[in-house]
Amino acid sequence: MDMQTIWNENRVILRGTAAAEPVLSHENHGVAYYTFPLSVLRLSGSEDRINVIAAASVLERCPVAAGMTLEGEGEVRSFNNKSGQGSRLVITFYARTIRPAEGVRTLEGSRRDEAGRDCLLQLGFTGRLLEERTEPLPDGGERHTLTYCQEWEGVPIFSCQIQVVWRGEQLLSIQGERLTGTAVPGGGEVLSTAGALVRFLAGLNQAGALCTRIDAMTAGYLITEPRPVQLTPVWSIETDNGVYYLNALDGALLTLE
Fold first, then answer.
1. What is the pLDDT of residues 138-175, one digit of tens each?
2. Would residue 188 count as lying in a domain?
3. How many structural domains is the chain composed of?
4. Based on the domain organization, do 81 and 34 belong to the same domain?
5. Structural domain that includes position 138
6. Could you tell me the pTM of the whole model?
7. Pairing of strands 242-247, 253-254
8. How far, in Å, CA of 14 to CA of 50, rounded?
9. N or C, fewer C-beta in 10 Å, the chain?
């Protein structure tokens, strides 16, 4: 005898963004169930959050990380909250299937730095890669965070950085700051490379800092005044003890805020 489960009387399809990593909710008959909040936007732009419950096997087929855009199919579950705290009626979404939502950006055979630049260009952001960091995830996957700084007429603005985060080959999030507007030239004479090195070593001695090697020097800008925005020419100096920024006008060491 064939048995078919008919559940279209209570069928929901939700599309939204995972607002947090899944955490263990409970176990039932040897099956582990996990929960995570799904952020869903209304047409008005307001955000609703609904808790998703999914079996471990569902998440194995589609691992979920915070920031992923997902589409899930399942049922609405509800129960009365008698604890006296929070809503009296608690509504959850029991997901039978979860998959990446259509339109999610993937690497499509490109390197991560190239795919990241392409995403940023579509947002009107031209930049250069500063750092790539890889972190292991509990499910055995990896999160890759690429940090770019904005370029203004080919010159880097170290204060304006955007992070592009990938999970495997899928884009998770893009966040950071971008400078727009019209530049007005300022005055002042910029230190030469040799002069900048002398000022840098003197500044290190005065601060009691140490470095045994200078790996690179890059000319660029830092934002030193927020309103109106003032760009100060600097030297970015990479050493074995970190990256320092030297004011290219007066030789003072600056911090990246």
1. 767 788 999 999 998 899 999 999 989 888 888 877 88
2. no
3. 3
4. yes
5. 112-176
6. 0.59
7. antiparallel
8. 10
9. N
